[in-house]
Structure formats: C-alpha cells, structure tokens
Amino acid sequence: MAKAPEAYVTGVGQSEVGVRLKRHPMLLTVDAIKEALSDAGLTIGQIDGVSTYPGKSPGFLGFSPVGADELIDTLGIRARWFAGGAEISSQLGAVVAAVGAIRLGLARHVICFRTVYEAAAMADPVNYPSRFDGGRVSGMQQWELPFNAISAAIWIGQYAERHVRKYGMTREQLAQIALTGSANAMLNPCARAITKKQLTMDDYMTARMICSPFCLWDCDRFTDAATVLIVSAEDALDEVKATPVRIASYAGSAHRHNWDQEEWVAAYHTGPEIWRHTDYRVEDVDMVQLYDGFSFNAITWLEGLGFCDWGEGHHFIDGGSRIARDGQLPLNTNGGQLGAGRLHGFGFAHEAVVQLRGEGGERQVPRDPKVAIAASGGGPMATALLLARD
Amino acid sequence: MPADWQRMLPQLDQDNRDFWTGGEHGELRIRKCGDCETYIHPPRPVCHKCLSDNVVAAAVSGLGTVDTCVINYQQWMPDMPVPFVVARIALDDAPGIYVTSNVIGCPVESVQLGDRVRVTFLNQEEVWIPLFEKIGSDDGPEGN
Ligand SMILES: [Zn+2]
C-alpha cells in the first residue's frame, strides 16, 4: 500500500480584523480566501475540500455566521469532501479533519476557515439576536448557568484559581501572557483594532477584576474577522507557489468532556499525544502559538505539551523573558487573542505559518525558526498542530 | 437565604430530574451504579465504569469540601447580584464526583480551598438549586 500523502499548509489569509465591522461576514470570509488563494498561487477552481469549526451557529449567529455548506454554494466550490461542526476537538480540529481527508486521498486542496462576528453581532441585535432568550438551559450548560457561571471566564477561572491557591501562581506571573501578547501586538499591523497602546504591569495590576484570578486584560474581546488556511496534499505541491509548511503531527484528545469533573483539562491529554506521531521532540520547537482566550489557557498548554511540569507553568513564564519574541521560546508572536483579537483558534496556526516562512516583518522571531506548535481550545476542548518547514 | 434573582434554570428531563428536584425533600441526589456503586455525574443512563444501565438516584449527605473556587465580580446580566463565589465541591460520600455550585452566606473572600461545606437549596419554580454554606463559620449571613 502506498504511503499516505503528507498534508501541508500552502496558503494563509485573513480579512480585516476589527471590532464592529460593517462588512458582511460572508465577504470577510471571501476576503480571507482570496488572500490565501493568492498566497498559495491557487484558484478557487482547484479547491476541492472545505472544513470549518463550528459550522453556522443559528443560536448565536455572531459566534459563527458562515457554514461550510453556504460557502460551497456561494463560491461554487466543487467539493469532493467537506465538514463543519462543533463536536470536534476544538477550533483547529477543523484542520485536523482536513489533514485526515488529504491523507485518505479525499481531497487535494482544502480551505479551512473560521469566521467570527461577535462584536458586530452584539452591536446589531436586530439581525443578530442574543443567545440568552430567557428559556431553560440543557446539556453541559445546565451544570454551570444555574449557578450564575455564565461565562467561560468562570469555568476556566476555576482551574486558574487552583493554580493560584494550590501551586502559588501570582498575578504578576499570570500577567506575562497578556504583557507578552501586547508587546508582540504592537509590532503586528493587523492587531491595531485591538491593541492601541502597549500594556504595562501597572495597567495590569490596577485593572478591573472580572473573575478571580482574571482581570480585564486576561480575557480576549469580541472581534470580527475571518482566517483561512489552505491545506494541500504532498502530491499536489507542484501546483503551489508558497513555501509549504508541513503539518508534522496533530492531536485532539478529551477524556471526560465537561467543564468540572476533571482535575486537568484536555490540553494535558492532548499534549503528550502529539509527541507520539513524530520524531520531533519538545526541545526542537522554536516557537509556540498557544490559545489565550483567557491568559491561563496558554499556561495549561505549556504544561500539557511538556515545556514544563504540570503545575509549574507560572514559573516557566515568570518575568516574561523566556517567552518574549527574542527569548528561548517565543509565545504568541502576533499578539495572541489577547493582543490581536479573538480569531478563535485559527489565528495561532496562521501566525505559526507566517513565522516559519520568515514573513513576520517587524515581529519576525530571530534564528530562522523551523518548528512551531499552534494550539487551540480550553477546558474539555483541545487541539494541537506541530508545524514544520522541513 | 439571602435575596436572590431569577436564575437561569435547567430544562428538566429523565436524566437530570432527580438532581434538580431532590431539594424539595431536602436531599441532594446523585446518580449511582446499582451494580458497582460508581457515582455518575453529570447523570447519564449508564455507568461509565462497568457499562451497566442499572443506575439509581441516591441521596448523599450533602457534605463536601471546596476543591477550587473563584470570586466573580463581573455583572454578566442585568440584576445579577455580584460579587459571588462559584466553587467546585467534592462530595464526601460520592468519590470522584464534583458539583459546581455557589458558596453562600459568607464574605466572598472567606472561601478557601479545603473549606467544609453543607448543601442548602434555593427553590425557583419547580427547580431546587443545590447551593452550599460553610460549616462552622461564624461569618454571619450577610453577603453572597
Ligand atoms: Zn457500574
């Protein structure tokens, strides 16, 4: 049997990133697709697969206003394979699904996309009604919402506060995720709608508290944008002009799928899994782009992926120099979601590819990086991609 | 019970009804496997340990320990009283089970990991929401 073809990211694109954008969310999606096609040197006629997370979300359209089905129809994509759904291992699970399709020979060039429109939707309740309609709650939400635990800040906060009270994490240590993101965002022209001025430790320490241990700067904010990655088969690389980046390993594990029955979130199960499918080791990683919808998520990823021991992540980032752009392990070099907006998982993979190609401009990390990890998700949701320019 | 507000209530169904209505009888009811005695929460129609579908609702003592907790300051909805504590409670006699709830009846800053707590119930419509109070606390009833 022939060896399954490897999967590569061959094009990346992003729409304008803003807060309360007026542009139609399908058009934002198409903006990002056009940029990714141009980057890859492909035409829409060469695309034969589509993958997205979480699919169109009618309950709260701003969370996901565009589905794979509508996109296929809108652009006349002749899809041989497609998928869009929320019950996968988190946002970048859509990329893992595309890798599976590529390796099985079901598609050659897959558009993977995530469009977010939450800021615009909140400002336009006529076209985008609120998700809270006063009705009864069911499913996983019933174990949180009746206790006023309405926001993921509370669900993630439970794990973060355990790090504070059991393992001694200080606010100054936690702050390093937001401070690093802000410093990097200042060098990212696409982050200007989110980060206008560099965050200082004093700003952080005096900020309004949201939910312990999180202050305002530990929480990402609603953003409007579309992000696209084109994933292509190894045997289709001769059709592509951009430097391909190999998806060298990938994992998305969950043990108990809920927010409160586990001691360690899904990142801790996913991290070890990614190293089972590759010869690369944790020491080979040149940079990490780790989910920071809440600052603490990035710490769970550092621990879960094995960069430090469980319960020790706050020591690893203490002082911030290790994770700075010129440090030993640069983190969230575009600003992350805290600094560059809630692109919801896809921004981390986009930035990893940009950096591995050496196209980061002012924010490019030094030392010609070749291996990066992009990770999405928090709580029971976790996906990690190991990306390599080899 | 301090003044509360209209909370978001669960849609009752065949799996969760015992949990959300046991308070009417003063009982915190957690599902349990009738064959291997494993506690099952959130309630499912089958045991995750032995795959038996002989599951029953069992009244537990309602005593527990704070496993982790946060102080929430943000008013997420109009009229929502803040600040409040959300805690994950490890139940004494349902090993391996946590219940997310609120610790009420004490200053929010006073709740610590390891605090001993006891269930109390807040009735809204036909739902009895299990909340927890510290045991042996002399902090008084003010605050939430
Ligand atoms: Zn059993």
Automatic annotation (TrEMBL), chain A:
InterPro entries: Thiolase, Thiolase-like, Thiolase_C_2. SUPFAM superfamilies: Thiolase-like (SSF53901). GO terms for molecular function: acetyl-CoA C-acyltransferase activity; dioxygenase activity. Residues 266-384 form the Thiolase C-terminal domain. Keywords: Dioxygenase, Oxidoreductase. The keyword Iron does not apply. This is Diterpenoid dioxygenase. It comes from Novosphingobium malaysiense. The lineage of its organism: Bacteria, Pseudomonadati, Pseudomonadota, Alphaproteobacteria, Sphingomonadales.
UniProtKB/TrEMBL annotation, chain B:
One of its GO terms (molecular function) is DNA binding. Coiled coil: none annotated. Residues 59-121 form the ChsH2 C-terminal OB-fold domain. InterPro entries: ChsH2_C (IPR002878), ChsH2_Znr (IPR022002), NA-bd_OB-fold (IPR012340), Thioester_dehydratase-like (IPR052513). Residues 20-55 form the ChsH2 rubredoxin-like zinc ribbon domain. Keywords: DNA-binding. Gene3D superfamilies: 6.10.30.10. PANTHER family: BLR3430 PROTEIN. This is DNA-binding protein. It comes from Novosphingobium malaysiense.
